[in-house]
Amino acid sequence: MNSSFRFIRALKRQPVDSTPVWFMRQAGRYLPEYRAMRERVGGFLGMCQNPEIAAEITLQPLKRFPLDAAIIFSDILTIPDAMGLGLYFATHEGPHFQNPIRDAKAVAKLPIPCPEADLGYVMDAVRLTVKECGDKTPVIGFCGSPWTVATYMVEGQGSRTFSIIKAMMMNEPLVLKGLLQKVTQASCQYLEAQIQAGVEAVMVFDTWGGALSGAAYHEFSLHYMQEIVRYLKAKTLTQSIPIILFTKQGGQWLESIADTGCDAIGIDWTQDLANAKARVGRQVALQGNLDPTVLYARPDIIQREVQGVLANYGYGSGHIFNLGHGIFPDVNPEHVAAMIEAVKKYSPRYHQAEMIKDNAQNGTV
Ligand code: CP3
């Protein structure tokens, strides 16, 4: 591993010269070159399943902006698709499954996909991207949290109320746990294979953990993310790879998330970074947390808001600048440029003291 990457160093809370920056959905619809590619290929899934195209799209935002990490262009629903659920995207409607999982029989029949055989297109995209990035940029691998992936598998599509999976959780908790266990096993192997293919950090997206009560969150979401962390930290090949856990609306559970042994926590914009740092900053790095709607403002306002986020985290390493959730598709790419420019311009001051100390300790000054 090239530990001189600013992003990897910050994840390990080692001194950096400036705050690293990347953002969720950085390869996506707000980029005209992405929309042109989608038009040409004829759909999102087709782009994910073609490794050359997925690698090219992963790199599109890096050609425009001085980002500190690339995230592999794929989706959290590749695992259930490989389990045979029949993933498709209806125009402007988000993901759907032809065969949702509703009972114990369906859970029992689910196979655990083999990453190289059944999801080889993701591993090939990782290998191509890592080769392109060389020692310039680290590549992030990812999966969804078992709970978040299961919401789509059980509901059959996105949901506002999660009525079907929550009824299952209460009426048939063991059926749901059987499903979560299978998705967990698949996710462990999937992340391990991405690491073998060359990713230098992994992130688990728990978009819907925040829809649960505290007790249910610990039992049905965090418990399974904990298993993923334990699996990766137990193996020689994967244990040094930083793990980021991101539960949207999970600010109240930061202490338990940090106790999983993850390296970093993704923070959404509803959480105060200074408060999060005071609570768990000695244990983990923090990634976030500009409100994605700030990018609708004028560039000078965006730059002021970026300064606010940097000041909120304050001095020292352990911060990775990001949005609090994915970028919206109708954001002007020039506004993204303004955000990144502000991170590069205003963040070095928060690292100067630590860098001087580090250089002195290493005898480089
Ligand atoms: O961040 C990145 O640039 C990497 C790629 C990435 C995508 N999806 C590409 C994508 C990642 C990390 C994801 C994760 C993902 N996918 C999550 C968790 C993170 C989050 O956003 O909460 C979830 C819940 C999904 C499932 C999913 N995929 C949904 C709900 C949708 C439709 C919503 C939407 O934004 O359109 C997708 C489609 C999707 N995944 C797109 C992209 C770029 C849009 C596809 C298109 O229409 O071109």
Short note summarizing the structure:
Keywords: Cytoplasm, Decarboxylase, Lyase, Porphyrin biosynthesis. The protein is an alpha/beta fold and 365 residues long. It is 50% helix and 11% strand.
Q: Can you walk me through this structure?
A:
With 365 residues, the protein is an alpha/beta fold. It has a single domain, classed as Alpha-Beta Barrel (TIM Barrel), CATH 3.20.20.210. It has helices spanning 6-11, 32-41, 44-49, 51-64, 78-82, 104-109, 115-118, 120-133, 146-155, 163-171, 173-197, 214-234, 254-258, 273-280, 299-313, 333-346, 352-361; strands spanning 70-71, 87-90, 94-97, 139-144, 201-206, 243-247, 264-266, 285-290, 319-323. Strands 1-4-5-6-7-8-9 form a 7-stranded parallel β-sheet. A two-stranded antiparallel sheet has the order 2-3. Helix 9 packs across helix 11 (173-197). Coproporphyrinogen III binds at residues 24-29, 38, 44, 71, 73-77, 94-95, 142, 144, 158, 205, 207, 326. Coproporphyrinogen III (CP3) is lined by residues 24-29, 38, 44, 71, 73-77, 94-95, 142, 144, 158, 205, 207, 326. One of its GO terms (biological process) is protoporphyrinogen IX biosynthetic process from glutamate. Catalyzes the decarboxylation of four acetate groups of uroporphyrinogen-III to yield coproporphyrinogen-III. Keywords: Cytoplasm, Decarboxylase, Lyase, Porphyrin biosynthesis. One of its GO terms (molecular function) is uroporphyrinogen decarboxylase activity. Its main location: cytoplasm.
